[in-house]
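Sanity check

After download, print the first record. It should look like this:
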Amino acid sequence: MVLYTERENKRWSKGLDSLMQAGQITSSTVDSVVKITTGSWDSGVDSIIKAYADAVKNGGEPPISVDEGLEVIKILEKMTSVIDKAEKERVS
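Expected structure tokens:
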């Protein structure tokens, strides 16, 4: 039976965590490559655009309402304002 010191246990634990993360990243990458090469991959934006086009074509409700779209624009404008302000303060 092999006994490890606390330091060695931490190394093994960190090493195992790193290997598990690498495995997850590799698995996700392979999954994405397969989806892209087979044409079965859609981004969230692609799905919204397709749903919007279907709504226009068939006379249905769009997936995002005008009010929701305006709210997103307001949030993005606030974010841009904060970023611009931070940039100016950083440069000063």
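If your output differs, re-run the checksum step. Summary of this record's structure: The mean pLDDT is 87.
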